[in-house]
Amino acid sequence: MTVEERVAEAPSVRQPPTNAMPGRGGWWIQPNSVAIAFTLFILYSGWSVLFLSGHTTYGPYLSPFYSPHIPLNWPLSAAILVAWVPLGFRATCYYYRKAYYRAYFRDPPACAIGEPQHPHLFAGSYSGERKFPWVLNNFHRYFLYLALIVLGFLWWDTINAFHYGGTWYVGLGSLLMLANVILLTGYTFSCHALRHLVGGSVDCFSCAFAGRPRHGMYGLVSKINPYHPNFAWLSLASVAAVDIYIRLASYGAFGHCLGTHFGC
Amino acid sequence: MAVDYEIHDHDVLIIGAGGAGLRAAIQASNAGASVGVVTKSLLGKAHTVMAEGGMAASLGNVDPADNWKVHFADTMRSGKMINNWRMVELFAKDAPNQVYQLERWGALFDRTPEGKIMQRPFGAHTYRRLAHVGDRTGLELIRTLEDRSIHTGATVYMECIVTRLLKDGDHIAGAFGYFRDDGRFVLFRAKAIILASGGWGRMYKVTSNSWECTGDGVAMAYEAGAELRDTEMVQFHPTGMVWPPGVRGILVTEGVRGEGGLLKNSLGERFMEKYDPKKMELSSRDVVARSIYREVQEGRGSPHGGAFLDISYKPADFIRTKLPSMYEQFKVLADIDITKEPMQVAPTVHYAMGGVDVDGDTAATTVPGLYAAGEVASGLHGANRLGGNSLSDLVVFGTIAGQCAADHARGIASFPGIDDAQIRDEQEILLRPFESGGGENPYLIHQDLQDIMADHAGISRTGPGLEEGLAKLAALRERACRISIKGSRIFNPAWSMARDDLFMLTVAEAVIRAALARTESRGAHWRLDYPELDPEQGKVNYMVCKADGCMEVHAAPIPPMPPELQEVIEETS
Amino acid sequence: MPDETITFRVWRGDPSGGQEVEYRVPAVTGMVVLDAMHYIQAYLDGDLAVRWNCKAAKCGSCSAEINGFPKLMCKTRIDGLPADAPIHVHPMRSFPVIRDLVTDVSWNYRVNKEIAPFTPAEDDGEPWIMYQEDVQRLYEPRKCIECFLCQNTCHVLRNHDDFAGYYGPRYMVRYQYLAMHPKDILDRREALKQKAGIGYCNITKCCQEVCPEHIHITDNAIIPLKERVADEYYDPIRWAIRKLTGGERKPEESTTGPGIVETPK
C-alpha cells in the first residue's frame, strides 16, 4: 500500500474530539497548575538572572544562577553567559517538552481531551517536532553535554561552600546547595539522551565494543530515568530555593551569623 | 433465489486466525496457493492469546536428556493411550523445529544464562520442556504469526463469520457466512478448506475460553459429514479464578505451579500428597482438577469454593518477572497481591481434546478437501492434554494442514460448483431469528445450555445424569428454533449468538452421546458409575457422525502402534 | 453491594449519529464494565454492539471510553468509578463508529502492513544464542495486546487527523522491538522519520498514560527511537565522523512500503 492509499483510507467519519467528555471532570487542573508553576519560576529566574546581579554570594555560598562565577566587567548580568545552558537543557528536555506542550500550547491539554483551535507557531497547522522551532528539540544531546560541564562547576561551588575561613564548615546554605546539586545530578543523569548515549543505541551488548560496561551504565540510567520528572520538578524548586536563601542571607535577613555548626 | 452475496475465490480457505490458522496461511501461501483467512474477530485476538504457560518442545536446553521420544511417551501416557500415535510422533519430532522457526520470524522467548531458549517444568512433562515468555507465550506466538502472515499475500477477512461448509458432491466446495460490520452475506469458493476454528468451551458456564470458542468448526464439519472423535474428552484446567463472580473461570496459568506454586486446602494441607505423591502439584491436569474438586466436595475448600494456590513464599520480584500477567490479573480483578497472599482456584473448562477426526500425516478430515488443525481437530491429545502441548500442536499441524491443503488444491483445475440450494438453506437459517416471533432470547438459551452442561456433563458424570442432559438438550433445541432477535444485521451480537446456540447444541449433543458411550473413567472423562479404567475401551475411540440426519456414535478400534513406537513407550517407562 | 443498581449511559448509534441510552444494571461484587454490557445484552437490549473476546485483559478487544477516559471494559472495575454518578460508556473517538461501542480499527492493520517485518540475516541452521542482556528490554514492547487505546488517545491522530503522516504509538512500539532486536539487520531510522512520521509525536505521553499493559510507550519506545533518528539526522558531529570514516551501513527499510532498499554506498 502506498502512502496515498493510506491517506485515502484514513478514518474519516468519526465523532469529533471534544473537551466536554461525559463523566470526566477535573482534567484542566493539572495543565493549569503546571502552567502557573512554570510561569512563576520563569518570572523569578528571569528577574534574578537579568536584573539581580548583586547579592548573589554570601560567605562561601554562590547562587546557582551565577555559577560559574565569572568576574566580568560589563553592564549586563554575568549570569546570562551561562544561564542559557540550563535553560536550553530544560527547554529541550523530554519531560519538560511534555509539560509545556500540554500546559502552554494545549497540544493536548490532557489525554483524550479536545484541543482548542489555535494557530501553531511558524507552521500554521500542527506539525509536531518536524518544523522550526520544535525541530530544534532534537538537539537535546548538545545541551546535555554543556549541562554536564555546568554541573561540574556546581559541584565545585558546593564543595567550596563547605569551606569557610580556612576550615570545614556546615551551614544551612551549604546543605541547601548540596541538596540542590544532588537533585541537579539526578536530573542530569536520568536524562533520556544520556540513556541513549551510554548504551541505548546499542542493539547487541554482547557483541558491541565495551558492551558489558555500557550495558551496566545503561541499566543504571534506566533505573533512575523513570524519576526524571520528579528530579525535574524538585531541582527546579531547589535552584530557586538556594538562590532565594543566598539572596536573603546576603541582604542580612538572617543576621550575620555564619556559624560553624547547625542553627548558628 | 438467494439473497445477494459477494463471492471470493481462494485455492485454500482457512477458517480461524489463531495459531493454527495463521501458521497454515503462511505455509499454504509459501506453497504458492492463493489463501483467504476468515476470522470472527480482529486479527490477533484469537483464543491463542490466552495461552500463558509455554509451548512444549524437547529442545533439551535445560535438561539435555530430553528428546522427542520422551515427549512422545509423556504425551501418549497422559492421553491414556487413546491418542492418534502417528500424530503424536510427528508432533514430538517437529515441535523443536517449529520453536526455532518462530524465533526466526521474530518471536522472543525467555533465555537461559547461556543465551538459549529457556524451558520451564509443567505438569506431567518428564523434563523442563516449555519454551515460554513469562506468562504470555500465546500472545508472542500469535503476534509473531500475525506479523509474518500479513506479508505472505494471504487475504484476511476480519470479523467475518462462516456458518456453513458447502459441498460439491462429496468434495468440499466452499463456505458461506457474513461480515459482522454490515451483515452482508459472503460466499467463499475454495478448492480446499482448513478448519482452524478452535474449541467449544463457551458451552460451559465456568470456562477460560473466549467469546469465539463456540464449537462452530466442529459443528460445521459434522454437518458436512466429517467424523468427530473423542468428543467426551473435555479438559478441566485445575486452576481457574473463582472470585469475584465476574471473573469465575478465568485461567490461572499452570506456570504458577511450574514456578513452584503449592496447592493447599482449607486445613493448610498440601492435598496432592494424597492423590499423586510423586508429581504433586505437577501431576497431569485431569488428576489435579479432580483432586481439587474432591477437596471442595468433601468440605475442605476455600471460602469461595476452590483450593488455595500459593506462590507468595517466593521472592516478590521473581513472581513479578515470571508471572507478570497473573500478578496484574489478580491485583486488578480480585484485589489480591499474589506476592503476599494465596490465590483461590477451582477447575475451569479449558480445552476440547475431541474434535474433528483427522489423518496424522495430512491433517485431512474424512471429507475430501476439508482439513483441520489445532483445537478443532482431534487425536493428538487423547484423553487428556498436557500443558504446553496445545501451542506446539497449533504450529506443527498448522504447517501440515497448510502444506497438504495447498498441495490438494494444486491438483484441482477449477473451482467446484456450488448449487444455490445449500446457500438458500443457510440464508434461511440465518435470517429466521429476525422474522420469528417465537420470543426466545438467544443469550438465555446459551445460559440454559451452560447450566445443562455444568449439571450433566461436568467434571464428574453419571449415566442417568447424561441421559437427563440429553433430554434437556432436545427440549432446548426446540426452544432454539424459536429464537427471535431485534435490530439490524449490522454488528448485531444477538444475531451471531443465535447461530452459535445452534452450533453449541450440536456439539453438546456430541459430547454427551460420546460420554454415554464411554462406560469407564479415562483421563478427563470421569464416570462416577464407572470409576475404573476399562482396558477394552482403551483400544477404541468413540466417533460421532451424522447418519440419516441423526447423530450416531460408534467405537472405532485404534490401529496398533508400530513396534518402534512401542519400544519408545517401553524404554521410557 | 448486592441489591444496588448502577446506572449506565451507553452511547448507541451508527455513522449517522447517536446518543446516550440509559440502563440500570444490578451490582455484583467485583464486576467490571464489560459484565454490565453483557447484562444489558442478555436482559435489556440484545443488539447492543460490543466487541470483546477474552474478558481477561489479554486480547485487547474491548477498548472504549469510560467516563471520558480510554480504557479496557474488561479491566475497569465498577467499584473504582464514582459511585454516585452514572457511568458513561462511549466508543473510541478516533475511529469511525460501526455501531454502538464498536469502531472500525482496520486503519491500524493497514499501517502494520507497511512496516518491513522482522528481518534476520541468512539462516545458518544453528539455534540462535541471544543473551538476556541483549533482549531484556525487548519483552516490554511485546506485551502489546493491540487494543489501540494509544492510537485512539494520541492527539496527532485524535485531534489533528494526521493519519497520513504518523503511524501512531502502537507502531512506534513495534518499531522499538524491530530496531533494538539484536538479530534484525535493517536500519529503520529513515523509515521512522519518513513514512512512520515519528517527528509528529510531541511526547505528551498520553499513549503511556492509557496503556492497559503499562508499556512505557513514550519513555522506552518513542524517545529511544527519536534519539536514534537524531543520531542520523540531527547530530552534526556524528555526521562529520560518518563522512570522515565512511563506516559500513546496514540495509535500510524502504520509506514507501514494507520492502527493503539497497544498502547505500
For the structure shown, list the relevant keywords:
heterotrimer; B: 573 residues; alpha/beta; Flavocytochrome C3, Chain A, domain 1; Methane Monooxygenase Hydroxylase, Chain G, domain 1; 7-stranded mixed beta sheet; 5-stranded mixed beta sheet; 19 strands; C: 265 residues; alpha+beta; Ubiquitin-like (UB roll); Fumarate Reductase Iron-sulfur Protein, Chain B, domain 2; 11 helices
Structure report:
The complex is a heterotrimer of chains A (264), B (573) and C (265). With 264 residues, chain A is mainly α. Chain A has helices at residues 3-8, 29-51, 80-91, 94-103, 140-160, 172-189, 192-200, 211-224, 228-250, and strands spanning 57-58, 61-62, 163-164, 167-168. Chain A is built from nine helices and four strands, in the order ααββαααββαααα. In chain B, 36% of the residues lie in helices and 18% in strands. Chain B has helices at residues 19-30, 68-78, 85-104, 137-149, 216-223, 255-258, 272-275, 285-297, 316-322, 324-334, 389-410, 420-435, 442-456, 463-480, 493-517, 563-571, and strands at residues 5-15, 35-38, 55-56, 119-120, 130-131, 155-157, 160-168, 171-179, 185-195, 228-229, 234-241, 262-264, 307-310, 343-352, 355-357, 370-372, 377-378, 540-547, 550-557. In chain B, the strands form four sheets. In chain B, strands 1, 2, 6, 7, 8, 9 and 16 form a seven-stranded mixed β-sheet that branches. Chain C has 265 residues and is an alpha+beta fold. Chain C has helices at 33-44, 106-114, 132-135, 139-142, 149-153, 155-158, 169-180, 189-193, 206-210, 217-233, 236-245, and strands at 5-14, 17-26, 63-66, 69-72, 87-90, 97-99, 102-103, 252-253, 260-261. In chain C, α7 (169-180) crosses α10. Chains in contact: A-C, B-C. Chains B and C meet through α3, α4, α10, α13 and α15 of B and α1, α2 and α7 of C.
Secondary structure elements and pairings:
The complex is a heterotrimer of chains A (264), B (573) and C (265).
Chain A: H1 3-8, H2 29-51, E1 57-58, E2 61-62, H3 80-91, H4 94-103, H5 140-160, E3 163-164, E4 167-168, H6 172-189, H7 192-200, H8 211-224, H9 228-250
Antiparallel strand pairs in A: 1-2, 3-4
Chain B: E1 5-15, H1 19-30, E2 35-38, E3 55-56, H2 68-78, H3 85-104, E4 119-120, E5 130-131, H4 137-149, E6 155-157, E7 160-168, E8 171-179, E9 185-195, H5 216-223, E10 228-229, E11 234-241, H6 255-258, E12 262-264, H7 272-275, H8 285-297, E13 307-310, H9 316-322, H10 324-334, E14 343-352, E15 355-357, E16 370-372, E17 377-378, H11 389-410, H12 420-435, H13 442-456, H14 463-480, H15 493-517, E18 540-547, E19 550-557, H16 563-571
Parallel strand pairs in B: 1-2, 1-9, 2-6, 9-16, 15-17
Antiparallel strand pairs in B: 3-5, 4-5, 7-8, 8-9, 10-15, 10-18, 11-14, 12-13, 13-14, 18-19
Helix pairs in contact in B: 1-4, 1-11, 2-3, 3-11, 5-15, 9-10, 13-14, 13-15, 14-15
Chain C: E1 5-14, E2 17-26, H1 33-44, E3 63-66, E4 69-72, E5 87-90, E6 97-99, E7 102-103, H2 106-114, H3 132-135, H4 139-142, H5 149-153, H6 155-158, H7 169-180, H8 189-193, H9 206-210, H10 217-233, H11 236-245, E8 252-253, E9 260-261
Parallel strand pairs in C: 1-5
Antiparallel strand pairs in C: 1-2, 3-4, 3-5, 6-7, 8-9
Helix pairs in contact in C: 7-10
